[in-house]
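Dear colleagues,

As part of the handover before I leave the project, I'm documenting each prediction I ran so the next person doesn't have to rerun anything. This entry is a single chain, and its sequence is reproduced below.
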Amino acid sequence: MRFDILTLFPEMFEAVLGGSIIGRAAANGLIELNFVQIRDFAFNKHRRVDHYPYGGGQGMIMQAEPIFLAYESVVNGLDHKPFTVYMSPQGKTLRQGMAKRIAKKYEHIVILCGHYEGVDQRVLDEIIDAEISLGDFVLTGGEIAAMALVDCVARLLPGVLKSEEAFSEESHYGGLLEFPQYTRPEIWRGKRVPEILLSGHHKNIEAWKREQAIRTTFKKRRGMLRRANLTDAEKQLVEKLKKELQV
């Protein structure tokens, strides 16, 4: 999969995405990361890409033309239109299901990172296919949100992680939060690892993990259970938890 990031701060991406799992995936040719400096397409010696908003208001607005030219530099010569995203607090909230759909459906993604007080609406209308948000809060720019999107999607691609199990058991992947995890030593400051995990009985261990995932989700993010695919027995467990906690 190819990611083209339109940004005022490409160095931020190089520092963060250049290492760890995502950096190795790029080095191994599993993904392609391209960071486009929007200022390179400005028409003035100061490389200014923002201006005062029409109608008044605080702050500055990113201009349409430099963004559009940066976008054109990516898509010129292509035989397809890449899926183009604007990272915005007005967008749909990024969830694991969305990341799975993007990873499965698209091979080329362009991500626009806004800054200042926003972006001229005309260029958004012209090139953007979807607006995506990390949540109901505002960041200084779209760079951090774009990094999260790249990381979230890229790790779902074949070969990026060692196996599908590396992400299929994680929080949110199957609609539940992850079960509690433990490692060596067996006893730490008087606290023992649950005996079931030491039993070697894989079927019982998997059943325990599933139950603990439901319990964890119920305690921390109860609303997720409405979307989770639960068996009748698991639904009965949820009802039992409601009674135990008097919910």
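The CA atoms of residues 2 and 166 lie 22 Å apart. The first strand starts at residue 2 and ends at 7.

All the best with the project,
I.
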